[in-house]
Amino acid sequence: MKPIRKAVFPVAGLGTRFLPATKAIPKEMLPIVDRPLIQYAVDEAREAGIEQMIFVTGRGKGAIEDHFDIAFELEKTMSERGKDLSVLEPTRLGPGNCAYVRQQEPMGLGHAIWCARDIVGDEPFAIFLPDEFMHGSPGCMKQMVDAYDRVGGGNLLSVLEVPREQVSSYGVIAPGRRDGALTEVTGLVEKPRVDEAPSNLIISGRYILQPEVMQVLAAQEKGAGGEIQLTDAMAAMIGSQPFNAVTFDGARYDCGSKAGYIQANLAIALERDDMADDVRAFALDLLK
């Protein structure tokens, strides 16, 4: 069983739901308090022992690459003024720890993952959808990697229970045997009708997949929404490789929606010693 050393971050999306804020700023750079969404995802990957970050980008996403570079002028100025540089330490990814590849056409999540095939190579790898903000301790991917080691490999998905009327917005698993937080995956459906959904367990933006998925994606036809769906490719592998789901022990905020984004900011602010009292007092005052 090979360890999980690589992670793919599909960050080529246009972020149209957050226009005009995302006209010039990638949606992945929108901050939760004072750290961008993509930084939280990378920190989660590091906690799980992942070494190489692979960013699948598009036009106008240069700010992501700049964020994980060394800002010499900024650091020099801060140093001269006696300011603490440790706040920038998590933003540094060396040449051996990150790679960037372009998705030149908006053909769906499955296509974005396939664009990273040459860098992933023949290793199992993780996938992070940064606008799915997964907050917990340990992090979602650490919980998944621990489960991966426990079951001896295979493919794993992070799942959460949602009200059944919401399932048509997500990929949904058909559950098999259950063992605590671990559930066997016997089938997958992308955005099913409510009356056809096999469960209310949705895929929540974190994956561990074997490299064979790239071969499936290479021949994958377009699915829901006229896009190449990762869910369809994974469904085609069920039966030939082990598939399990891990129910995340933590909170999930859909930062692809405006309401979820505001909720995430409030939740993190209320955990911060430097602002929790002020934010709580303000929120309580609003509710009067």
How would you portray this structure in words?
With 288 residues, the chain is an alpha/beta fold. It has a single domain (6-256), classed as Spore Coat Polysaccharide Biosynthesis Protein SpsA, Chain A. Helix content is 30%, strand content 25%. It is built from 10 helices and 13 strands. It has helices spanning 37-47, 62-67, 72-80, 109-114, 117-120, 140-151, 213-218, 230-237, 258-269, 276-286; strands at 6-10, 31-32, 35-36, 52-57, 98-102, 125-128, 132-135, 155-161, 171-179, 182-190, 201-209, 243-247, 251-254. The strands form 3 sheets. It has a 9-stranded mixed sheet with strand order 5-4-1-6-11-8-12-10-9. It has a two-stranded antiparallel sheet with strand order 2-3. A hairpin with a 2-residue loop joins strand 2 and strand 3 (35-36). The longest helix is centred in the middle third of the chain and has 12 residues, at 140-151. The radius of gyration is 19 Å and the shape is globular. The termini are far apart. The mean pLDDT is 92.
- Range of helix content: 25-40%
* Mean model confidence by pLDDT: 92
List low-confidence stretches: none
Oligomerization category of the chains in this entry: single chain
CATH class: Alpha Beta
**Strands ordered across the widest β-sheet:** 5-4-1-6-11-8-12-10-9
Count the beta strands: 13
Helical run tally: 10
Summing up helix and strand content along with how strands pair, one would put the structural category as: alpha/beta
Q: If you compute it from the alpha carbons, what radius of gyration comes out, rounded to the nearest whole angstrom?
A: 19 Å
The run of helices and strands is EEEHEHHEHHEEHEEEEHHEEHH
Query: What does the overall shape look like?
Result: globular
- Could you say what the CATH architecture is? Alpha-Beta Complex
Distance between the termini: 57 Å
- CATH level-3 fold name: Spore Coat Polysaccharide Biosynthesis Protein SpsA, Chain A
The figure for the number of domains is: 1
Largest sheet: 9 strands, mixed
Proportion in β-strands: 15-25%
Assigned CATH superfamily: Spore Coat Polysaccharide Biosynthesis Protein SpsA, Chain A
